[in-house]
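agent: user wants the structure for DUF4331 domain-containing protein from Actinoplanes hulinensis. delegating to structure tool.
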Amino acid sequence: MRANPPRSGRRRTVAALGLGVLLTGSLYGLGPSTATASSHREAPLIAADPAVDNTDLYAFVSPERPGYVTFIANWQPFEEPNGGPNFYPFATDATYHIKVDNDGDAKPDAEFRWKFRNVDKRGNSTFLYNNGPVTSLDDENLLFRQTYSLESKFDGESFKTRVQDAPVAPSRVGAASMPDYATLRQQATQTLPGGWKIFAGQADDPFFLDLQVFDLLYGGDLSETGQDTLAGYNVNTIALQVPFEDVALGGDATRNPVVGVWTTTERNRVRIAGGGSSGDRVQVSRLGNPLVNEVVVPAGLKDTFNATRPDRDAQIPALVNRVLNPEVPKLIEAIYKIPAPATPRNDLSEIFLTGITTKAGGPIKADLNSQLNNADVKASRFTPSEQLRLNLTVPVAGQPNRLGVLAGDLQGFPNGRRLTDDVVDIELQALVGAAQTGKLVDALAAGDAVDGNDQDFTGEFPYVALPNGVSVNSAGGQRPGARPSGSATPNSLTGALTSDTAQPAPATVPVSYAAGASGLGVLVVAGGLLLFLWRRRRQRTSADPDQTLSL
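agent: tool returned. relaying tokens verbatim.
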């Protein structure tokens, strides 16, 4: 399926070696925040544009299909099932991307791009999404539907179209409108030449956590835990399954097993009210590891992070101190009297910026999921950056542990991310030093007491649960709490990872950030708006001398 497998010895354009660290997987914070979940409304601008807001990214070796990797990316948070009449389409004036870096230079070596199109038959005749039961994706009762094209490119070549007019699974309207939604899901799941599997459509939000964290870290005594805040809500999902050889460096996952993954959304630089756009495309949303932009990046840089490429991550000193001297462990110490680990926190920078490797000089003495572990990577070109990194050759766990690597399950987060990984509890333990000491902190063993999703995942592609069809508040505002985990929480690590007590001094990083729109573009748009309002005021003043509101 790959356009052209890379030739032996092929050279790529590279970035300069990053000299420091930028982000960590910090989890908790106090006080007002726009964050409400794993990249659900995490930044001011994207909160006003939910159709292109990345919520979560998952990357894992396909459990039932050896030699294939699955990427699942979600957008548009907090989709209430009864949110008609327009429900939740993908944006047609944006492109959705999954990007893969296999040589460690923080630039995409494999890129997949989706574009969506509306097929709207409603016109002026009705407001309904459908005017009768919908039993298939081509049912004439389905008045609004979407299709998409999928394009891919490898190693800097041009995009090539892989499929056009593929069907999108519609928003789930309800039992009367869509009596057999599982059939619609099945029809929207397709297999392409080369073995690729694809899906786009609505699904249950697979992320699970209790969001009372913002009330003084669960009430200050862990009493406010146990409710899955996202239970009952849906998201828009894109899922892709491809062979290892399509994303591994040189097409060889045996020599080069580690890939880094992130997702982005891009819009035209200028959008015109009432329709239309102009200018080149700019990145407006970005996501790799969960819970980064919400609680690590300060409010003034959240929009900037969403607009920045990973190869520029090592260029913002305003964030470096947040990483090396994170605030959250100090807050936990103040509230729960659990001592904060000594700084600088090079263990966190290794987990989230370089991948876990002995080749980066960090404190964790194990080789797991850094591109530096790929045999054909040139270390001089490696650039620390925020990516979700995955080792394709780690065997699929027979009985996955929700705490992933910290519990000895090397296939789990932060080695990629499975749907069942409890990233809230994992990152909480990492923050209080579990990767340094080799032991979990018993006082926080229960975490947020939400250990699994409210709906079961499936055992085959696209794995996510069917979208919810019942209103979130249908039970008087009471939603089910956490499901018990399948196994007891371990009290110590299994020796999969070890750490040194001595931590090398951190490097420093130069700064620079790319904004999503140029200053000139903003001035042009603002100037046009002011001119429009001035003219409108003059017209309204002439027609209505009693005008009392001035502009």
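agent: one observation worth passing along. The CA atoms of residues 321 and 421 lie 28 Å apart.
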